[in-house]
Write a structure and sequence with these properties.
Strand order of the largest sheet: 2-3-4-5-6-7
Radius of gyration: 23 Å
Shape: globular
Number of helices: 17
Length: 512
C-alpha cells in the first residue's frame, strides 16, 4: 500500500479519504497528486477528462503512480450516459434497451463487456447501474436510464448488471437509493419529492436495491430526493433514517454508500456542499461525490476542513468518519484483488447486437406492416426534434440516426429543430413547418426523444405527418406516446449503436 505523507494526521487523512472529487484536464493536476499523497483515496472521472482509451489508461497509471490503491470512479452507464465515448455516443445500449429485450444473460454480457473496457483503462468503480423504477413517465432525469416501469424487470436486470460488471473486476455502484423513478423533478435543478406510502416504496422502489444487495453490489449511491414516508425532514442523502435505518439496518447492506453529486442544486442550493457533506457522513454515507461541476483543490480543502471542523466541534462523531474511511479503504482492497480481465472487445459486437434486439418496429394502419416496408434507397432528410439536454447526459454527446444514415446513404441531409419561445403548440407547428420546408422533396425521417413529455414535439410531428404521411418516425426516448408514421422505430435509447440499429432498418443495409 502507498505510504501517506507523514505530516497528515489521522483525522485529516480520514476526511480526505471519504471524498470523491473530480478535476479538469486529461492529465492529473499537481494539487490532485499532492492530495492523494495526503490521504485522498478516490478520484472521479468525467467526459472532460477523457480523449481516448490510451490517454485514459495513461491518466489512471499517473494516479496509481502516486497512490497504488486509488479508487478511480466514473459515471459510465452506457446508453445515453457515457463518459468513455462522450463525443461519439456509446457502443453499448442503455438500461431501457436492455429492459426492452428482457434477456438477463444479455444484460450480464453487456455489463461485463463494459466492465472489461473500463478495467482495461484502469477504472475500478462505476457509478452504475441505475436501479430506479421509471414509474412516472414524465421523469426528466431517469427515463431511458431505467430498465423500465416494471419492478420485477428492473430488479432482475439490476442484479444481472451488477454481477456482470463486477465479474470484470469493476465495482458496481447501484443508484439512486431509495429510488428516483417516481418524480417529475430533476434533482440537478431542485429537490424532488416522492409522496407515496412506505408500503409502495417497499414493494416498488426498494425491490431492485434488494436484488442488487443480494447480488453483492459493492457500492450504493444515495438520491437527493425527499421521501416524507421515510423522512419528512431531510432528503435521502442526508437522512440517517434512510441510509442507516433502512439501507443498513433493514436491508442489511454493509458496503460503501456514496452520495450523488453534492454540487447538485437539490443539496447545494438548500444546505450548501460543506454542511451537506457533514450531514451526509453523519447520516451514514461513506463517500462524498463532488466534482461534476466543482473540480478544484479549493473545493477539496473546503470539504476536508468542514469534516474536520465538524468532528472537532462535536457535530460529527470521529468514529463515524473513521468508519466511513474504512469502508472506502475496504473497497479499494477489493478492487486491488479483483484481478484484471482479458483485453476488452470494446463492446462493438455485443453492444450492437443488443441494440438491434431492442428495436420495436411498427407501421401505421393502412400502410402495411414492417415486413412490407420498402427500405430507402435515396438519401432522406433527417429532422431531429431536439429537446433540452438532460444534465446527466450532457449536451456534448451526439444522438440520433443522422450520422449512421449518412454513412449508409451518403447524401443524407439533416437539420435540428427545437421548441423556441412562445406556446408549445405554436412552437411545435413552427418547427414542423420549418422541417417540411428544409426537407423539400426528400423523404423525411423525424427523430424524437420522449415525445410524450414534450407537447411541442408532438405538435411538430402532427404538422409533418399531416403534410407527409410517409414520414418515418424514430423515437429514441421512452416510447410512451402511441406509434405513428409510415414506419415507427422505438430504439429505447439514444446511444450510437441504437442509431445504427435504426438506420439499418431504414435502409435495409445488413449489419457491419
Amino acid at each position: 500500500m502507498t505510504t501517506l505523507a507523514s505530516g497528515t494526521d489521522t483525522l485529516t487523512r480520514d476526511a480526505l479519504t471519504v471524498l470523491q472529487p473530480g478535476f479538469t484536464g486529461t492529465t492529473a493536476p499537481d494539487w490532485l497528486l499532492r492530495r492523494l499523497g495526503e490521504g485522498l483515496a478516490s478520484v472521479g472521472l468525467f467526459g472532460r477528462n477523457i480523449a481516448s482509451p490510451g490517454q485514459l489508461a495513461a491518466l489512471t497509471a499517473q494516479l496509481r503512480a502516486e497512490r497504488d490503491d486509488v479508487l478511480v470512479a466514473i459515471d459510465e452507464e452506457g446508453g445515453d450516459v457515457t463518459r468513455l465515448e462522450v463525443r461519439s455516443g456509446s457502443s453499448f445500449p442503455g438500461n431501457h434497451a436492455l429492459g426492452a429485450v428482457d434477456d438477463v444473460e444479455l444484460t450480464h454480457q453487456v455489463a461485463h463487456d463494459l466492465g472489461r473496457r473500463l478495467a482495461s483503462c484502469g477504472v475500478n468503480l462505476n457509478w452504475a447501474p441505475s436501479a430506479d423504477v421509471n414509474s412516472d413517465p414524465r421523469n426528466p432525469v431517469i427515463g431511458v436510464r431505467s430498465f423500465g416501469a416494471d419492478t420485477e424487470l428492473a430488479a432482475r436486470h439490476t442484479a444481472a448488471y451488477v454481477t456482470g460488471l463486477q465479474s470484470a473486476g469493476v465495482a458496481a455502484c447501484t443508484k439512486h437509493f431509495p429510488g428516483h423513478g417516481d418524480t417529475a423533478v430533476d434533482s440537478h435543478h431542485a429537490l424532488p419529492r416522492i409522496d407515496v406510502s412506505a408500503d409502495v416504496l417497499a414493494e416498488r422502489e426498494l425491490a431492485p436495491f434488494r436484488a442488487a444487495i443480494a447480488a453483492g453490489t459493492r457500492a450504493v449511491m444515495s438520491a437527493h430526493i425527499l421521501v416524507p414516508a421515510l423522512d419528512p425532514d431531510r432528503p435521502a442523502t442526508l437522512s440517517r433514517r434512510i441510509l442507516t435505518g433502512l439501507l443498513r439496518d433493514e436491508l442489511g447492506y454493509d458496503g460503501l454508500i456514496v452520495t450523488d453529486g453534492m454540487e447538485m442544486r437539490a443539496i447545494a442550493g438548500t444546505y450548501g456542499i460543506e454542511r451537506g457533506s457533514v450531514l451526509a457522513i453523519a447520516a451514514g454515507a461513506d463517500a462524498i461525490c463532488v466534482g461534476g461541476g466543482l473540480a478544484d483543490d479549493a473545493t477539496v480543502l473546503r470539504l476536508r476542513d468542514a469534516l474536520v471542523g465538524a468532528v472537532r466541534a462535536g457535530e460529527l462523531p470521529e468514529e463515524r468518519l473513521a468508519e466511513a474511511a474504512d469502508r472506502v479503504r475496504a473497497l479499494a482492497r477489493w478492487a486491488g484483488t479483483a484481478g484484471r480481465p482479458a483485453e476488452s472487445t470494446h463492446g462493438t459486437e455485443i453492444g450492437l447486437h443488443a441494440a438491434r434486439r431492442a428495436l420495436t418496429v411498427t407501421a401505421a394502419p393502412g400502410l402495411g406492416s414492417p415486413d412490407t416496408f420498402e427500405p430507402l434507397t435515396e438519401p432522406p432528410y433527417v429532422a431531429a426534434l431536439t429537446p433540452v439536454a438532460n444534465i446527466a447526459v450532457g449536451d456534448e454527446t451526439p444522438w440520433g440516426v443522422a450520422a449512421e444514415l449518412i454513412h449508409l446513404l451518403p447524401g443524407t441531409v439533416t437539420g435540428s429543430f427545437s421548441a423556441g419561445d412562445g406556446p408549445e403548440s405554436e412552437a411545435g407547428e413552427s418547427a414542423g413547418r420549418a422541417a417540411l420546408q428544409a426537407a423539400g422533396p426528400r423523404r423525411i425521417v423525424a427523430v424524437v426523444r420522449d415525445e410524450h413529455r414534450h407537447p411541442w414535439m408532438a405538435a411538430a410531428l402532427d404538422a409533418l405527418l399531416a403534410a407527409r404521411p410517409d414520414t418515418i418516425v424514430v423515437e429514441m426516448g421512452v416510447p410512451q406516446a402511441a406509434p405513428r408514421g409510415a414506419l415507427h422505430i422505438a430504439t429505447h435509447g439514444a446511444a450510437r449503436v441504437c442509431g445504427r440499429a435504426a438506420a439499418e432498418v431504414i435502409t435495409g443495409v445488413p449489419g457491419l
